[in-house]
Amino acid sequence: MNIVILVFGVMMLVAAVFSIETKRIIDSVIGLSVVSLLSVLLFVFMKAPDVAITEASIGAGLVTAVFLISLFRMRGGDES
Amino acid sequence: MRRFFSALLAVLFVYIIFQFIQVLPDYGKVDLSKRVSERFVLKNVSEENGKVVFGKSRNLEDGSANIVTSVVVNYRSFDTLGEVTVLFVSALGVGLYLGGFKKLSCKIRVNNILHIGGGIVFPLIMLFGAYIFTHGHLTPGGGFPGGTVIAVSVLLLYISDEKFTVSREKSKLLEGTMGSLYVIVGILGLMIGGFFLFNFMPTGTVGKFFSSGVIPIVYSIIGLKVGSELSGIVTDLFMEEGWK
Predict the structure, then answer these.
(1) What is the pTM (predicted TM-score) of this model?
(2) Interhelix angle for B112-134 vs B215-238, to 10°?
């Protein structure tokens, strides 16, 4: 149990540092999405399924979509 | 230099958090009888009624099997009204900045598999969202996660279908109606029970679908409101300036 939490926590830290340090913005958006997906698993292991549902739909779904759409609009729609 | 200071700040933050964790009591070893949360768990805030048994106890002051829901929508329902208002104000701000009537053209041809698969998966995701908010008093979940799942299904249709748009007038109408219905339920509680957002309906047996008074009604109202609100935000993001 503790080992699982430790492994997921270290993976979350790696993804968070990756999303800060990377050069391309789209890579940092994907890194943030990975952080929230791993935290969903962590919430399920900590027996909080309602928080896990909310985190999965908001953190991994809506926020990533909002970031991607705003990135697309900032570039004027010339790049995917 | 900036990097050094940020690392120092992060280390300081971790140190403070670990100092705070040592103050907290261990998991599962809290003496609940000295805390107010025990009264929420046993549902005897106003009067003593002994232990709560799933499927047998009836006519408690709050018949919700999910303790989180019984705190969020019954004992602390006024907080939830404030949360709904905060969400409304943020949706209003997004609408003020990003209002438009022409759909953003992505200049990418939508894959056929995504187009057909999105149409098949969309009603299932919507049904799942409706299940989450109507069963908020029995299973984990509630109005906010259910509404968000509905908004994510709308987002899927926006991505997979080039011509799909949500009618903004209808979504705003649904949102405003649901917001005023929540206040009307609160005022009904004030008229019948004497407190704002009082649980004035019979609470029934713990664990049945038709139980716990106004909680399923209020959570359905919140689910529809959050769903239409977040769908409106997604619509605002996908629109650009111009006319239809």
Answers:
(1) 0.85
(2) 150
